[in-house]
Amino acid sequence: MLEIHPHEGGIRELRLARPPANALDAALVGELIRAVEGAPEAGVRALVLSGGPKMFSAGLDVPVLLGLGRPEMEAFLGDLLALLRSIATSRVPVIAAITGHSPAGGAVLAIHCDYRVMAEGDFRIGLNEVAVGLPLPRVIHSTLSRLVGPAAAEKLAVAGALIGGAEALRLGLIDELAPPEAVVERALARARDLLALPPRAMSATRALARRDLAESFAREERATWEAFVEDWFSPETQGALRALVERLKKKS
Fold this sequence. Notes:
The chain is an alpha/beta fold. It has a single domain (2-195), classed as 2-enoyl-CoA Hydratase, Chain A, domain 1. It is built from 11 helices and 10 strands. The strands form 2 sheets. A 6-stranded mixed β-sheet has the order 1-2-3-5-7-10, sandwiched between helices. A 4-stranded mixed β-sheet has the order 4-6-8-9. Helix 3 (70-88) packs antiparallel against helix 10 and helix 5 (138-148) packs across helix 6. The mean pLDDT is 97.
């Protein structure tokens, strides 16, 4: 479900490996939390978060999650926000190697990383929560707005838009495009570039630059979780998500 690949220079690649779509369920989220939070103590100096060919992550595993009762779903949503906080506030850089499509939760993982390299080609990325009936959680919207600015964040989030790599690069949603076979290597190169800098100066300045993310989670995580839970179990969202599952069944 999560492959761990060491690379030279203290870089560790966390490769999502939950076919067919690397969708996020409770087990995968738990493994990611442990891998991200345990990295510094293991001597890891940087992380690369990658996916499989043509698919970084399709986001939440909606068919599985719809089968959870309220206590289990509350716990899952809390863990999901804890994972995002862990990535956003990691003591070591986290680079996203977006190897393919990255809708919804896949994009959410990526935007909390330090840097995003996306595969060239007919791949889409975006926070399309609204399109599947789920209001965009506030702390996630704050991170999106931080990257692309308030006006672009509004357009992307309200429409639930999925956009191509060139548009994502233009808006600042990603930082670099690379051929699919070179995405991980480009992410590793970015990590190596950061680690080549004087370490204390780099780490201190990185922490300063990302302090707003930490403050956003400290200020908004609890309220985000409460609203997320209520939104998930609202009749409108449940109906939209169940309709999504039916559409996915017809495609399979």
